[in-house]
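[job 4417] fold queue: 2 targets
>>> target A
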Amino acid sequence: MMDTSTSSQLHEHGTWRAPVYNITSDNACRLLSQTKLDPDRDFEHNFARKALWCADGSSALLQCENRSFQLIHASPDERGLTLSHALTLRQPSPIVDFLWYPSASRHNPATYCFIASVRECPVKLLDGNDGRLRASYPIVDHRERQIAPHSLLFNLTADRLYCGFQDAIEIFDVHRPGEGERLHTRPSKKSKEGLKGIVSALSLSPTGTYFAAGTLTPASTAADNITLYDISDNMQVLSVGGIRTRQSGGVIQLMFSPTDEYSLYAAFRRSPCVWTWDLRNASTPVCCFGPVPIGGTPECNGWNYDTDVLRCDQTNQKIHFDIECGGRWMGRGNQVGNIEIYDLHTNHQLAETTMDEMSGFSTENSPVNVVQPIEEFKAHADAIGSVTFHPLQPALLSVSGSRHFDAEAIPCVSSTRSEGNAHSGSDSDSALESDEGEGVQCWPCGVIERPRSRPQPTVRDASIKLWDFGFENTSA
């Protein structure tokens, strides 16, 4: 049974301790609670794309496909925690990104708010209780259009907000709504220096002295797509490399280890792996966390992802990972509905070994170790877009869903009938409903007419589940 008492996280001297996870390869994870999204009659196949806990774990915020935020409350009960839908906040345009205020708590109304990036709207600070607008931070381009940033970040003191978009990062004073200060990630559009493209990921180091930025533009021989900036003067201090020959997609997520300022983790589009760097030698990644490659074995080290690509995980959907606050475990979903748990202590051991072997020198073609998941289990019947660890309890929240176009396209002989067939006047020339698809008309002459409406995607599993990792190992 998972202990839900907040006081259980306090040491006898009043110091906070990170939750203890009981994760082994022979344990079966227990489903603690599950719930569904608020039904939408106008958008039947809705699903959650991303989920984030607030600071005390009392609520989770979900970004949904139907242009809405849905708030889920986690309430303690005899089993541990129970999830329940609390609020739906509809938005006028598709949601690009969101972020909780760092100290947000359902029990403190003053801090219970979050930042929302909505297309063609200013960046908004919304109240978590009723969704009312508290403040707005506009980003306007040279044509006076509102820009919605693709990535959001607070500094350590929560008085600065960083918003990443095309070739720039806008920096706002949270306490003074209005226009911010623009940090250009490259000198000019024709320049080959700096970060090129949409700044799609931002992450702050545990010490708060620098932050990492990544773009959707793939790394090239001229420039890398991950860079570190000094937070005091916003100057570029380090370029993170060694990924050009290993990943062809852009960065979708960056995250520092909560307990190690030198460990940076990155996920890329259309990739089943999470790569990690030791920033004391950022010329090449230390290792990558991913499943067993096709034709490979768990013992294969130095595996090349250019030649052995995992073909079962090639979705364009963003797959978000998370690291628990103790810095030991990392969780990530995949396209087939499995949750993978990785032991990050392996990364620290590999980092020490790699630093000793390379002695400060490495190339982008240097072999990279592959770390396999210590536990993997079936969690959903659809792609898992996001997993997030509870900040105070040994539990993991997962959301699933993706677009599926299951109906096979019917070959169209002709989109319109010929003039002669169209005016034959025979009763047999009337349109008949085809058994091959709804709305398809089949004419006796063999001509098939199809509607011009676009096919609508379906969702196989749009569930929200909470998994317990705090149980005792009772296996023999």
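>>> target B
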Amino acid sequence: MNEIDGKGQGQNDQEKQEMNDQKGDDGGKQYEPNRGRQGSSQMENEKQVFTFKAPWTIYSMAFSSRPTNNYTRLAIGSMLDESPNEGIILQFDRQNEKLEKKAKFAHKYAPTKIMWIPDTNGTYPDIFATSGEHLRIFEMDDEKGQVKLIKELVNRSEFNCPLTSFDWNIKSHNYIGTASIDTTCTLWEVEKDVVFTQLIAHDKEVYDICFSQDSQIFASVGADGSCRQFDIRTLDHSTVLYETDNNNPIVRLQWNKLDANYLAIIEMDMNYITLLDTRQPLIPLSKLKNHKNYVNAIAWAPNSSSHLCSVGDDMTALIWDFSDFSGKQEPLNNQQSVGNHNQYQDPFLEYKAESEISNLSWCLSKPEQLSICFSKNCQILNV
């Protein structure tokens, strides 16, 4: 593993690749999303979907961020009740226009999350991490065509329960933050294999953690129904960004990848996404309620501060456009919109899957590509 020095990286300026000339075959079909509800737009018919069917139910998944890859690569993880579990590395074969299995790796329990190092400069090997009973770091060895386990980061403190999620600092690659059912968040120095700090972040289980564009700032959400912001330089206190009604658990959060003022969160067993502005704690910016069943995952576009994708048990993937307020110094003040949950409620793109969608990933180095998983299927959508 190359030395991880924590240097910053610039935004991805890679132009979108034109893939509209691809034709579907056994691995793909014409991308013809349903016309959205009122306020939505129909997508171009040329867009395509490519599908890989795994031997087991898929839960965790992520795109590789490595820009030097001339191909699309992603990892998927199994969701089996009994051990062992496993993961598969998939790669898009442009010549045959289909997703192919390139390698697999063992994983004792079902990985709760998979994430590749967010290296859009191509500085490091193709490295990814997984969470489960502890944190693991793997490398895809292209020469040997296999996955190598290169690190197991095991917390030896009294707080060492299974991990629900983690996030890799997008600017300081030496740091990974983990969330655990034991109420704690732990920050790891990856190169040294040591815990940088560990803190009790919530009153109950912590379900997710995410770094801001500011590498010193992260947020977490949990079973106590709160979203909290932390500064690594002053961990003696936190800022409560939001609390749900009746303390309903918050299960996922995503920080806008280009504008650190905005976050999106989803609550347990709810059909909406809540947008937050860090400059106005406790006041939701908007609630997006077009899903007809529980929302399971969200992801901000890597190249746009105003686009968000969400997926859920209603079998739909929705893309939202917030360009009306994204990037403003004061978010919608005096426009009767702070806390107005009826505004920005209509997505402008919609895709219908065959069953409940459990997860998604938006490719950091190829922002025209989204991936979703439902049941045993992983699909790449060219948007």
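[job 4417] complete. Note on B: Residues 1-46, 326-342 have pLDDT under 50 and may be disordered.
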